[in-house]
Write a structure and sequence with these properties.
The protein has 145 residues and is of the alpha+beta class. Helix content is 17%, strand content 39%. The protein has a single domain, classed as Thiol Ester Dehydrase, Chain A (Roll), CATH 3.10.129. The longest helix has 16 residues. It starts with 15 loop residues before the first strand and ends in a 6-residue tail after the last helix.
C-alpha cells in the first residue's frame, strides 16, 4: 500500500468516526490540552473497533497490546470543546493490525497517528493469530485512498 499522508485527511476520509469531550483537567499550564492526553483520545477511537461488543474481535484469554505508536502533534487542542477522532486500518497482518488515526477540533487536524496493535494470548503473553471472523470484521475499516 502506498504511504498515506495523514495530514491531508479530513475526518470524513476515515471509516470509523467518534469523539471525546475535552475536560478542563486535560489542560496544562499553558491552557491547551496536554500532549499525553492525545494518546487517550486515540485510545477512544481504537477501542470502538477493537472492543466493539456488537463485533467482538477477540475471545476470552486474549487481548490487544500496542507494539508501536507514532504520534505526530500538529496543532493545539483547546478546552472547552470536543475532539473528533477518525480511525481506519492500513494493514491487517497474521496477528497484528496497523491503524491510522486523526484528531480534529473544529474540522482542523491536530494530530495524526499510526499504531500497531498485536493480538495476544494473555496467559502466554505471546502473539496469537487473528481469527478469520476478526479479519473479516476488520476489513470494513480499511482505508481506501
Amino acid at each position: 500500500m502506498k504511504d498515506l499522508n495523514l495530514k491531508e485527511f479530513t475526518l470524513s476520509d476515515f471509516p470509523k468516526k467518534t469523539y471525546d469531550k475535552i475536560r478542563y483537567s486535560d489542560t496544562d499550564r499553558q491552557g491547551h490540552v496536554n500532549n499525553a492526553v492525545f494518546s487517550t483520545f486515540l485510545e477512544t477511537g481504537r477501542t470502538e473497533i477493537l472492543y466493539d461488543p456488537e463485533n467482538p474481535l477477540y475471545s476470552p484469554g486474549n487481548s490487544f497490546v500496542i507494539a508501536n505508536i507514532n504520534l505526530n502533534l500538529l496543532a493545539e487542542l483547546k478546552w472547552p470543546g470536543k475532539v473528533d477522532i477518525g480511525t481506519g486500518i492500513k494493514k491487517i497482518g497474521n496477528s497484528s493490525v496497523k491503524l491510522v488515526q486523526g484528531l480534529y477540533q473544529n474540522k482542523k487536524i491536530a494530530a495524526t497517528a499510526e499504531t500497531v496493535i498485536v493480538h495476544i494470548d494473555t496467559k502466554k503473553t505471546k502473539s496469537k493469530p487473528l481469527s478469520k471472523e476478526a479479519k473479516s470484521i476488520l476489513k470494513k475499516y480499511i482505508i481506501n485512498l
